[in-house]
UniProtKB/TrEMBL annotation:
It comes from Clavelina lepadiformis. Pfam families: BACK (PF07707), BTB (PF00651), Kelch_1 (PF01344). InterPro entries: BACK, BTB/POZ_dom, Kelch-typ_b-propeller, Kelch_1, SKP1/BTB/POZ_sf. Keywords: Kelch repeat, Repeat. It comes from the Eukaryota. This is BACK domain-containing protein. Residues 52-154 form the BACK domain. Signal peptide: none annotated.
């Protein structure tokens, strides 16, 4: 306060990086315009990578528009270094959004924006995670490489746990595919990808049109289900099993996409056992449900459903108990791949032959996988993802 009183009488003051912020606050409170101008000039002359964010914040707070512009110009030219500074992590969400909106000519700046948004959210995860989706929308994913999207962004839990973020990510990745030479769908193949449920959105149902590169919502399921299984039977989506908390289901519901205004129908016969984390697939018009977890144990049981008579029947059990497995059909045989046997993750694979009604061990996959996905393309089984 002594320096402020001295300035009133002498119009002189010695400003430093340590005292200038307090002096500015006093000048604003006491309405000493000339002192505020001294502070403005000091800030403008001393802008650097360490203080530019704080100077921007103070100049914005005290309505010094030209200084705000000067600070933002400096930040734009040095955005990569500025985003790495400790002050960035202390910003409120509106200031972070402002930083992410700034343009810069620096190489790889969009990668740095993404990393900074993640770091800011993780700095106070419980309070800030709700803001991450808004920040993610400000990242120009089209400027990020496909490798960065797959190896970095796709693995970030803040992204994976947000439906909005995942839709943006998938749209960006699919757009890279759409830029490649077009491929015609084979007979029986669809141009749409259906997605049901997921953590924190167990009832949601959406479809992605690979031609329009667009998501659209479908009716929510009747029951919230975690780790269910689903198949598309002649454009009728059959959703089976799953769990909610400690409750496991053997129930089945169906959505007929052939109808103009489809609604989920829960009046279908239930499976013989409660199952979550299991696999299902179609073969010769029959629906097969394999393995999974019931109320107590990992199981190797399997059963099939005939839509023509509405009945479930057991088939011979698999040789290995499997939870988190995946299943595909190749050459009229069902392949059960990977999973967890109740004690260990497994890489083993077995196939079911309809004629002999037996399970046969075949070559294992190269890595143990639980919760992975698989498909068949041109007579070859492709396996993706999972954990172990």
């Amino acid at each position: 306060m002594a320096s402020i009183i001295n300035f009133i009488y002498t119009s002189c003051i010695f400003l430093t990086h340590d005292n200038v912020y307090d002096v500015l606050e006093a000048a604003e409170y006491l309405r000493i315009t000339s002192l505020k101008e001294y502070c403005r000039k000091f800030f403008k002359a001393s802008l650097n990578e360490e203080n530019c964010l704080k100077i921007r914040s103070y100049s914005n707070r005290y309505n010094m528009g030209d200084l705000v512009q000067a600070a933002e110009t400096f930040i734009s030219k040095n955005l990569g270094a500025v985003l790495k500074s400790g002050d960035f992590l202390q910003f409120d969400v509106d200031d972070v959004k402002a930083m992410l909106k700034l343009e810069s000519v620096e190489d790889s700046i969009d990668e740095e924006k993404y990393r900074s948004a993640v770091a800011w959210a993780l700095h106070d995860f419980d309070d800030r995670r709700k803001n991450f989706s808004d920040l993610f929308h400000l990242i120009q994913l089209e400027n990020l490489s496909k490798d960065f999207l797959i190896k970095v962004v796709q693995k970030e839990k803040l992204v994976c746990n947000s439906t909005d973020c995942m839709q943006l990510l998938v749209t960006s990745l699919v757009s890279r595919i759409s830029e490649a030479p077009a491929c015609k769908a084979k007979p029986g193949q669809s141009d749409e990808i259906l997605m049901i449920g997921g953590r924190n959105c167990e009832r949601s149902f959406a479809k992605f049109n690979t031609k329009a590169i667009q998501w659209s919502n479908l009716p929510d399921t009747n029951i919230a289900r975690r780790y269910p299984s689903a198949v598309n039977y002649n454009e009728q989506i059959l959703l089976l099993g799953g769990s909610k908390g400690m409750t496991h289901y053997n129930s089945v519901e169906m959505l007929d996409l052939n109808e103009e205004n489809p609604k989920w129908n829960s009046n279908l016969p239930s499976m013989g056992e409660k199952r979550c984390g299991f696999a299902s697939t179609l073969l010769d018009g029959l629906l097969y449900a394999l393995g999974g977890w019931d109320d107590n144990n990992t199981t190797n049981t399997a059963e099939c459903y005939d839509p023509r008579n509405g009945k479930w029947e057991y088939i011979p059990p698999m040789k290995t108990c499997r939870y988190g497995l995946t299943a595909v059909v190749l050459n009229n045989e069902i392949y059960a791949i990977g999973g967890h046997d109740g004690s260990n993750y497994v890489s083993s694979v077995e196939k079911y032959n309809l004629d002999t009604k037996t399970w046969i061990d075949v070559s294992s996959i190269n890595e143990k996988r639980n919760g992975g996905s698989a498909c068949v393309v041109d007579g070859v089984i492709w396996m993706f993802g999972g954990w172990w």
